[in-house]
Amino acid sequence: MSESDWLEKEFKNIEFGDKRLRDRFFSMANIFSRRPDETINKAVVNFADKKATYRLFSHKNFSSDKILFEHRESTSSRLQNESVALMIHDSSFLASIQKIYKRLR
User: Fold this and answer.
1) Residues 16 and 59 sit within 8 Å (Cβ to Cβ)
2) Distant-in-sequence, close-in-space partners of 92: CB < 8 Å, separation ≥ 6
3) Distance between CA atoms of 34 and 3, rounded to whole angstroms?
């Protein structure tokens, strides 16, 4: 399954009240899924896309709550068919931040 297929399936019910916002969300999500550790300015190369990303994020109908809600719903739906689910978390990034913070003190 490609990244765009996964995104379409994961967020199939997400709505922002405008098809253009929805299309922009999927476009930006595809970019960020390929470079999740980058800032917007590094992940999005094209200036017009950067501007569109910031416009999307500042739009009154767009919110991270909607994204998280749809992601939780999709995850919950997938888990209904499983008898066991492992919730694995990599805390190495957080540990690195803590070490840096301690050195700065």
Assistant:
1) yes
2) none
3) 8
DSSP calls for 35-71: STTS-HHHH--SHHHHHHHHHHHHSTT--HHHHHHHH
Q: Tell me the CA end-to-end span of the chain in Å, nearest whole number.
A: 46
What is the pLDDT of the chain when averaged over all its residues? 86
The two three-digit tokens of residue 103, written as one number? 């050195």
Determine contact, residues 61/18, Cβ cutoff 8 Å: yes
Give me the count of residues in the chain.
Answer: 105
Hey, where are the domains in the chain? 3-104
Q: Is 30 helix (H, G, I), strand (E, B) or coil?
A: helix
pLDDT digits (tens, 9 = 90+) for 13-58: 999 999 999 999 999 999 998 888 888 999 999 999 999 999 999 9
One DSSP character per residue, 4-18 reads: HHHHHHHTTT---SS
